[in-house]
Write a structure and sequence with these properties.
It is a single chain. This protein has about 400 residues and is of the alpha+beta class. The chain has 7 helices and 8 strands; from the N terminus they run H-H-E-H-E-E-H-E-H-H-E-E-E-E-H. Strands 2, 3, 4, 5, 6 and 8 form a 6-stranded mixed beta sheet that branches. Helix 1 runs antiparallel to helix 2. The protein is globular, with a radius of gyration of 35 Å.
Length: about 400
Amino acid sequence: FSCFELNLKPLLQFFNFCVLRNHILQFVTMCAPDDSTKTAASSEGLLSNNKVLVSAIAFCGAVTIASVASLAVVATNTAGSGGSAAPTSMKDATIVVNTGDMLYATGKPPEGENPCSGKKPELENYDCVIGAIADVKPQAGGNVTKGYKGGMEVDHVPITTPYWQNKMCPVNVHWHLGTEHYSAGEYDEFGSGPVQNNYGLGDRRLAETEARKGYQCRYYDLDDNKFNTPYVWKHCVGMRIGETYEVHWPHSAAGMCGTPNQYQTPFYDGVFCVDGVLTDTAAQIGVQAQIFTIVNDEDYYYPDLFRGMIVDGEMGQDIAMYTGSTTGTSRDNEVCSQYSPITWQVDRKCHMISASSFDKMCADMKAQRDDMSDDLYAHGSRTLVSDQLTANNQANRKLRGE
């Protein structure tokens, strides 16, 4: 057994007793008079014996204190290293300390074959107008304001229950600069952020080399410390405090759910990973979308943003559900995506979230077997889809009293 597993207090008490007892017994044996000793001892001899006794007691005390100190140091080092067994040799003992530098947070699982690699089917974008009366498919992102109804007649319906109840799992997470969807009063043309947007008819690019920016939430306040205190990003790339981002979690029934290959970049590889599963894309592929403004305030920290939409309090409660397509800046109202129809479940509300929540998500992304580095930064936002290209099957759209 290991001495470090024992309660040290009774051990030290016993050690004290043993040391003092042995020395006292030795002293008594040495100094006790035998039959030949005279009863009356001289005062000088008694004084000499007392000095010996004091010396013996002092020696025992010193030994005890030194022993206690040594044991305390060893016990402290052992507890701090998380170990429970004594090393075979104190000379060879090594104390390992976790410094909390997140080295393990981004560690990947063992290398292995990725069965999802290259599974993205090549479906080219197509013209939204020419020959589109019969062939065009509903697009995203659209208007998700409560009460809104799209103008495209479709013959399918969106998933209206949580994706996990439909044997689907998240296969990726990524986000867009600003929002691709529109929710009046929440993320719209009256939103603001650290870089003011121009919601005119022109191109809303921040700069030639930056991603196209969508709509913003209305939280931003330059005089509030949580919007103006810098944050040192360790894992996400090119992020800004006070900015609005729309986070997407693509889900699929054909994902490698529950395995090290579940999360993929590009997300199409994860969506189409397992062959022979997808027969109805609107019922088997879906995206969760939630909109956040980044703040430097740990009161808004959520540790598991990586795994899906946050459902807590008002978060994830008011959800628009409709069918559309994949998004991104390669599509607009003239060029459409063939990856349709798929279900969209979009939170209509804006929410604040801490920068550390996003950085933790990026650390989790780095820890996946597949390389997700192409999703560690914000992608550009697609132009808001027109009414004519938005499906008319919005669930949970009715206003109170309708």
